[in-house]
């Protein structure tokens, strides 16, 4: 079970809303989000309703302003609780529809280019656990949640390009 609290103002001030499960539309509960406290679980936050727009991965901790979660604005409109799993396994493919070179990963990778010589990845098959995909190496840039399932092209995970830099297991501890 997870618990996250959204605050309208910085420093955990102003109107707040507590959440413990996925929520496709947070708009009725607050107009802006400038600080967040994650008491338990890992969460993916979205700038738009229905899990759309920029995504931000948060784990247990205090985020006193939106720059702390690398937010581009004070807009958070939906959230997902990421289920805890003990095992993680993902297959990455060089080309769309699971074609080209394939690599299976079970651990975090801070640079897919350095390790596998991939600067673009066009399809994924998530076998176990949830993963956070980062556009740049060293876990930087735009973030995307990959849940178990098939991602045949980069549009399937919400990206505008196949550029991929790093990949991390969605876990509480690092």
UniProtKB/TrEMBL annotation:
Family membership noted in the UniProt record: Belongs to the beta/gamma-crystallin family.
PROSITE patterns: CRYSTALLIN_BETA_GAMMA
SUPFAM superfamilies referenced in this protein's UniProt entry, alphabetically: gamma-Crystallin-like (SSF49695)
UniProt keyword terms in alphabetical order: Eye lens protein, Repeat
Function: Crystallins are the dominant structural components of the vertebrate eye lens.
All residue ranges annotated as the Beta/gamma crystallin 'Greek key' domain in the record: 2-40, 41-83, 88-128, 129-171
InterPro entries, A to Z: Beta/Gamma-Crystallin (IPR050252), Beta/gamma_crystallin (IPR001064), G_crystallin-like (IPR011024)
Gene Ontology biological process: lens development in camera-type eye; visual perception
Gene3D superfamilies in alphabetical order: Crystallins
GO molecular function (one): structural constituent of eye lens
Protein name: Gamma-crystallin F
């Amino acid at each position: 079970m997870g618990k996250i609290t959204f605050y309208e103002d910085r420093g955990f001030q102003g109107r707040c809303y507590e959440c413990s499960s996925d929520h496709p539309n947070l708009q009725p509960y607050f107009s802006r989000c400038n600080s967040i406290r994650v008491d338990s679980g890992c969460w993916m936050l979205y700038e738009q309703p229905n899990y759309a727009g920029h995504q931000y991965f948060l784990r247990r901790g205090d985020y006193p302003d939106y720059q702390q979660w690398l937010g581009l604005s004070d807009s958070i409109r939906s959230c997902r609780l990421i289920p805890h799993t003990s095992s993680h396994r993902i297959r990455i493919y060089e080309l769309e529809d699971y074609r080209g070179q394939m690599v299976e990963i079970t651990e975090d990778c801070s640079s897919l280019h350095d390790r596998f010589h991939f600067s673009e990845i066009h399809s994924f098959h998530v076998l176990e656990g949830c993963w956070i995909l980062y556009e740049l190496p060293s876990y930087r840039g735009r973030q995307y949640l990959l849940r178990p399932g098939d991602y045949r092209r980069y549009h399937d995970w919400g990206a505008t390009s196949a550029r991929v830099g790093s990949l991390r297991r969605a876990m509480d501890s690092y």
